[in-house]
Design brief:
The protein contains 4 helices and 3 strands. The chain is an alpha+beta fold. A 3-stranded antiparallel beta sheet has the order 1-3-2. β2 and β3 form a beta hairpin. α1 crosses α2.
């Protein structure tokens, strides 16, 4: 008999741990904690646990400086 673990959840995630945020963005765990410490990103605490809302993580990534063509120019050219 073979057992498999289903890792797909039907409940959408609204927050993640700093380690997960680092993996999702490609940044280091240290960079995530520095962004929180420096006030660049807002995290929430539940006892000792630190969580970052997904919308806040996306907001922070989008606030970083851009290089090359601005995203607006790329979208306008596609229209």
């Amino acid at each position: 008999m073979e057992f498999t673990l289903a890792s797909t959840s039907q409940i959408p995630r609204i927050a993640m741990k700093p380690d997960e945020a680092a993996e999702a963005t490609g940044f280091s765990r240290t960079r995530i904690f520095n962004a929180i410490r420096d006030g660049e990103m807002v995290a929430r605490k539940d006892g000792k646990a630190t969580i970052i809302e997904l919308v806040e993580l996306v907001r922070w990534v989008r606030s970083l400086p851009t290089r090359g063509k601005p995203p607006e120019a790329a979208n306008a050219a596609a229209v």
